[in-house]
Amino acid sequence: MSVITRFAPSPTWFVHIWSLRTVLYNYLFAKKMWWKFMLRIEDTDQTRYVEWSIENLLRVLHAFWLDPDEWPNNPWKVWPYYQSERLDIYKKYVDELIKNDKAYYCFCSSERLDELRKEQQELWLPTKYDWHCKWLSTEEIQEKLNSWTPYTIRLKVPKWKKIFFDDIIKGRVEVDSKDVDDQVLLKSDWFPTYHLANVVDDHLMWVTHVIRWDEWTPSTPKHILMYEAFWWTPPTFAHIPLLLWMDKKKLSKRTWDVSCESYLEKWYIIEAIINYIALLGWNPKSTEEFFTMDELIEKFDLEAVHKAWAVFDIEKLEWFSAKYLTKLNIETLYNLLKKYLEKYDSEYAYTLSKFDDNYNKKIIKELQTRLKRLGEYRELTKFFYNDVWHISQDLLVNEKMKIENIDIAKKWLYLALEILSANNDFQSVDEVKNVFVEWIQKAEMKNWQVLWPVRIALSWEKESPWALELIFILWNKKSSERINNLLKNLN
Ligand code: GLU
């Protein structure tokens, strides 16, 4: 079976995380069937059009490995992919609907329609067009057209009719035509509305499966009526349930946190994001959690998409991302990190470039299991790349660690110096640990008591890797240097 799916966004903003899920499901489904996924731009509402958003969208799709097979301005451009370039087509089809008595001219002014809406709202009635122009005679219409009265064109919804469609995810959806509004199809500026353009394009572009999110379900009966009016076979519909934010609220539309760009910028591992997003509302009916793109393509099944709302949880995404990071070998991880820094933090990329590759890799290796995303690297490693530091004495004194005053801290710093000078560079954190523990026990002290001031001396922070890891990474010479510096400062 040939399958053509499409993503049909209105270019208004960054790429929402929920759009990414829609794209992903469209992409997976098309690829599973060895067929085509295309991108069409629904830009008929010119007031909301944001120019940079399309280039940006293509960049984001590329970053997530979701390149469409057809997109605006592709080299073999089969047809225009911007709806604004297809206005003649819509006009032609809407005229056909008029001719077949499936649509009608509406000459109501916007003031009248506002008034009508207000009245209906006051009476708690559904807001719908009241058929004022539905039964105008041919002469009346002609007269208004001759006098250039502005008009829209509305869909003529039959009075008594059950409209239904079989949704792959939701099952049969059925509505009474009396609950369906006579939708405007062509606006007074001759731009089509979403409904007309969407149906015409899906048909002309041979779209076989419309996979979009649930918010569009109420529009689908109108679309079904149009397919019927044109004598076209409708595509198969699959409406994906809504995505909620962690607090179970609807994802607000315009906060940076719901944009895919923000996740790219924080540099979560792409595979992890894709993996996580795929599972938001779908699973392969097993407890498996990790899938490559190829495995997703193989296993994805629209029928297994859940009917219930899905909840987007950053912690779960971080968990996935951390898991993916741990799986990478150091070489790959290092290269990825360099790429990330060059793109988002050139200053730090420069800092790293001044250090030996082996030193950098040693740091990455130690941190690998702790990183949730590469964007955390700077914060977690700054003390490895900087010897200029200011330690407040308050940080050294720590009642909990039984370092009641600076003299006690100094005593343990001298002990650490002694240990370092008695040993060669350590080959592993375990080795540092064994040696230090032996010495500390000899001094009849607790490990944490001695290691606290050492950690501060080496990282000048209380939130840092373990003192023993710091010693391993910095080597003995640099560690001694930093401890000596601190002691000099304290004396
Ligand atoms: N232009 C609509 C949107 O912005 C497309 C909906 C559909 O996929 O039919 O979401």
CATH class of the largest domain: Alpha Beta
Q: Give Rg in angstroms.
A: 32 Å
Uncertain spans: none
Small-molecule binders: glutamic acid
CATH topology of the largest domain: Rossmann fold
Q: Structural class of the helix and strand makeup?
A: mainly alpha
Number of helical segments with 4 or more residues:
20
Major sheet: arrangement of strands = 3-4-7
| Main sheet: strands, sense, barrel | 3 strands, antiparallel
Helix content: 40-55%
Per CATH, the superfamily of the largest domain is HUPs
CATH architecture of the largest domain: 3-Layer(aba) Sandwich
Question: Strand-residue fraction?
Answer: 5-15%
Average of the residue pLDDT scores: 92
State the total count of DSSP E strands: 11
Span from first to last CA? 81 Å
Q: Domain count, please report it.
A: 4
Record the SSE blueprint.
Blueprint: E1 4-7, H1 17-32, E2 36-39, H2 52-63, H3 87-99, E3 103-106, H4 110-122, H5 138-146, E4 152-155, E5 162-167, E6 171-176, E7 184-186, H6 194-204, E8 209-213, H7 220-230, E9 236-240, E10 243-244, H8 260-265, H9 270-278, H10 293-299, E11 310-311, H11 314-327, H12 330-344, H13 346-353, H14 357-367, H15 377-381, H16 393-396, H17 406-422, H18 429-442, H19 447-459, H20 467-490
Parallel strand pairs: 1-2, 8-9, 10-11
Antiparallel strand pairs: 3-4, 4-7, 5-6
Helix pairs in contact: 1-10, 6-7, 9-11, 12-13, 12-14, 17-19, 17-20, 18-20, 19-20
The chain binds glutamic acid (GLU).
